[in-house]
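Repro case for the chain-ordering regression, as requested:
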Amino acid sequence: MSDFHCNRCGGTSCSDGASCVPMSNPPVQNKYWEKVMAVTCGRCWTDWKDMEVKIINEYRLNMLEREHRQMLKKFMTDFLDLDGTGKTAELPNEVSENWKPS
Ligand SMILES: [Zn+2]
Ligand SMILES: [Zn+2]
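-- result from build under test --
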């Protein structure tokens, strides 16, 4: 995995650059998550999991609702820059204002 490159931190803004390695243990083993794993480091994944909880609480998302799942997926795509646009994540103000990286 020497050519691993995290889209979000690029290995340079990772809080621990030396250990910018691919995330492990994706929620599901499938093609979609393989793609996520290919561009997401463990540290950014941990950051997202924190953010995910806050977003779900803020918007009272119900994972049984298809629309809500899609909304969360959109946030995740932006946050982790899964589409590789290089743009910073556009997160809802009320979430990012209260969010402090752990
Ligand atoms: Zn990263
Ligand atoms: Zn990283």
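Ordering looks correct now. The mean pLDDT is 84.
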